[in-house]
Design a protein that fits this description.
about 750 residues, alpha/beta, 7-stranded mixed sheet, two-stranded antiparallel ribbon, 34 helices, about 60% helix, elongated
């Protein structure tokens, strides 16, 4: 089997090409010694299979980031048979910078000229033959998104994998070329592989080369004395970078013939960006899009038609829209697609559990009789009241969660997600949050583990630690079942708007991250904010194959988690809930308060009294559920399903009636901001020093506890006195505005001081 490495800049279409080549054979692991994703797969359409290795997206082979070191070391040390260099044809000169470095390595190279369909759509032309002649390696025009040219690319890739290739330099400056040649001869004398690449890097004072070949530094320094550049002086890294760009501009400036439309910047993406990334309207448009996503996913009343008088009384239609939920009452409005699918999923899982209860009861009367009989034995209770009830609560929300991920995948695939980071960077940079911090945070909407890993791209340690601490403000996918349940509880308790409830959690989390960042900046001496440069991809229609692959990965992960971690934890929770001390002996208890989890919850509820949701008689259940969420956030819902088992006549949401609107929000805020799952906690520990990690744990608990208490007492004040609630809210807003003013004033003063010095 041959090995082909995919190498290219971020957003060049590399991942799209990888997915098109590997399909279902792709799998993800970690590179040895680091937590950066390693993606591999197999291309099987030729006479010989080709293993495809997707290297991280990078701009150069210099050791500035872990991704660049990984890509560099793989090509130099692992000796792939061929490297496929993906180049974004719409940004040719920038992409060719990496290519000029790659060509200095003794490895066969094939150029995949991607996004040529966009070039043609814009009315531009690109001469791939000239590019091929001047680079000296095969160039294949492709569209990874549409699948055009991929088979031809792989055919040529296999042919090139049987050949050998010696690295070559594209430098034209005679003095610089002479210097590199002399250093190359020294490397050849040592028997080093890829002597040209190593010689160029050593001349650049590359830190890896300086460390590995310190014995050549004296010789190199003497060679450098022959060059005296008036502009760059002895900065040879800048000198070589300038030489690369000069060569690219001179030799490839005429490869692309730009149409009048493109030269005026009037491409489709630029026209869309005038609206979606507008300086004033960009942020409100993003908020409106997010609201529509949550409205279609969680709303019990689509487009508020019920509030406008739409009422459905026909029993058949009510059952259709509510998943066999007709109770003799008219349906006000039409549920959103997310609620519609969740209702039917709940009905299916309910029937599945009823079937197991019927079997465990010894085939007694189907329904409540079978349920009661099944619960009377420990094994029936374990299966039906423990594992299945907990998984039912978690899995019944799968349609809503998948719909939410569908919308997120569409935003990513169209190119809009990259714009969100740009919009947020522009809006919040002055408050200490850059786009470089927002990229990991936006990743946190999917999972906190890779999001925390992504903070390693932030050079400044203070900003990196701040970003990790703020990560819980961005709700991960595992918390989605909690919001879906609490939204249903809010509706059952008379709140009325499930979509607005969930929308407020997500948008409120972003706003809270900004507020907390402001407060941390007030008390921090470090005023550094990382510079943010990001390539904005072209807009394009979402590809069903890419979106489907994204959803399939999420579903597989969710089901695997349910079948392993959640099932194991639910068994433990069932045991703690079923057994305890009653009548002086350890047994299956009749009263849940006498169970082991009852004792644990009763002890913990006093700690959470200030948060409001632990005050009433069921408060210990919420305390216990929050603690089990440390294993996996889905366990919060699973635990509540076991503890609030109200019977077949009630849904789980209808069984939870002890919370007020303020209590629901308080409980939601605590679970949003508190410790993430154990996997995320372990990841944070690996990314921080022991001292900073302990600070992070204290921050997560302190902020979640404090904000939960604040939300509860302010919300309760609104219930008592609207005027009092408004006054307190205005006071809080005033404090935030004052803190913002202090941050901007300090940063402005720092900037002036540096400028004058």
């Amino acid at each position: 089997m041959k090995t082909a490495a995919l190498l290219g800049n971020p957003n060049c279409g590399k991942t799209t090409l990888f997915n098109a080549l590997t399909g279902s054979t792709a799998h993800v692991g970690n590179w040895p010694g680091v937590t950066v994703d390693k993606k591999t797969g197999t291309y099987k359409k030729l006479k010989e299979e080709i293993e495809i290795v997707d290297l991280p997206g990078i701009y150069s082979l210099s050791p500035y980031t872990p991704e660049e070191v990984i890509s560099r070391n793989f090509i130099l040390d692992e000796n792939p048979d061929v490297v496929i260099n993906i180049i974004d044809a719409t940004n040719l000169e920038r992409n060719l910078y990496l290519t000029t470095q790659l060509l200095e390595i003794n490895v066969p190279v094939v150029i995949a000229l991607n996004m040529t369909d966009i070039i043609k759509k814009n009315g531009d032309k690109i001469d791939a033959k000239i590019l091929e002649q001047k680079l000296g390696v095969p160039v294949v025009e492709i569209s990874a998104l549409r699948g055009d040219g991929i088979d031809e690319l792989m055919r040529i890739t296999l042919e090139e994998s049987y050949r050998t290739r010696e690295g070559k330099t594209l430098f034209e400056d005679k003095q610089l070329l002479h210097l590199i040649t002399d250093v190359k001869i020294a490397f050849e004398g040592k028997g080093v592989n890829n002597p040209l690449f190593h010689s160029v890097k050593l001349v650049e004072n590359d830190e890896i080369e300086v460390k590995d070949h310190s014995d050549l530094l004296t010789i190199v320094s003497k060679y450098k004395e022959i060059i005296n550049d008036e502009i760059f002086g002895d900065d040879f890294e800048a000198l070589i970078a300038d030489a690369r760009y000069k060569y690219i501009e001179k030799e490839f400036g005429n490869v692309v013939s730009v149409s009048a439309k493109s030269s005026n910047g009037e491409t489709k993406s630029s026209r869309i960006d005038k609206v979606l990334t507008h300086r004033i309207w960009g942020l409100p448009i993003f908020i409106a899009i997010m609201f529509l996503i949550f409205h279609f996913t969680f709303s019990e009343d689509l487009f508020f038609m019920g509030k406008m008088g739409l009422s459905i009384e026909n029993e058949g239609w009510v059952n259709f829209f509510t998943g066999m939920g007709y109770e003799g009452e008219a349906l006000e409005g039409i549920p959103s697609i997310g609620v519609f699918l969740q209702s039917w999923m709940g009905w299916l899982t309910g029937q599945f559990i009823a079937g197991f209860q019927w079997i465990c009861s010894g085939f007694q009367e189907f329904g409540d009789v079978a349920a009661n009989a099944a619960s009377s034995t420990w094994y029936g209770s374990l299966i039906c009241d423990g594992v299945l009830t907990g998984l039912d609560a978690v899995c019944s929300f799968i349609p809503q969660i998948m719909l939410l991920f569908l919308f997120i995948a569409i935003m990513e695939d169209t190119g809009y997600m990259a714009r969100i980071a740009f919009i947020l960077d522009r809006a919040f940079r002055k408050f200490g949050l850059s786009g470089k911090a927002f990229i990991p945070m936006l990743t946190g909407f999917g999972c906190s583990v890779p999001a925390i890993m992504a903070t390693r791209t932030i050079e400044n340690d203070v900003e990196k630690n701040r970003t990790i601490r703020l990560m819980t403000c961005f709700s991960c996918g595992a918390k989605a079942p909690i919001w879906a349940l609490l939204a249903a509880v809010a509706v059952a308790c008379g709140f009325g708007y499930a979509d607005i409830f969930v929308f407020s959690i997500y948008i409120g989390g972003i706003a809270l991250a900004v507020i907390l960042a402001i407060l941390m900046r007030v008390f921090s001496k470090d005023k550094y904010v990382s510079p943010f440069i990001m390539e904005l991809p072209q807009y394009h229609l979402p590809q069903p194959k890419n979106v489907g692959a994204h959803l399939w990965e999420k579903l597989k992960h969710y089901v695997y988690k349910a079948a392993t971690i959640l099932t194991a934890s639910l068994i433990v929770i069932w045991f703690l809930n079923t057994f305890g001390f009653e009548n002086g002996s350890f047994c299956m208890v009749e009263e849940i308060e006498h169970s082991l989890i009852g004792y644990i919850g009763m002890g913990l509820k006093y700690l959470f009294y200030p948060c409001g949701w632990a005050i009433n008689s069921d408060g210990w259940k919420f305390a216990a559920a929050s603690v089990t969420g440390l294993v996996a956030k889905e366990d919060v819902v699973g635990t509540m399903a076991i503890l609030f088992n109200g019977g077949a006549e009630d849904t789980l949401a209808e069984s939870i009636t002890s919370l007020s609107a303020a209590g629901i929000y308080s409980f939601a805020i605590f679970n949003l901001l508190t410790f993430p799952c154990m996997a995320a906690i372990a990841t944070a520990k690996s990314e921080q020093t022991k001292k900073e990690f302990l600070k992070t744990l204290g921050f997560w608990f302190g902020v979640s506890y404090g904000m939960s208490s604040l939300v509860y007492w302010v919300g309760t004040l609104y219930e008592v006195s609207i005027v009092g609630g408004i006054l307190v809210t205005l006071a809080i807003i005033g404090l935030v505005v004052f803190a913002s003013f202090l941050v901007m004033k300090k940063d402005k003063f720092t900037f002036k001081t540096k400028s004058s010095s």
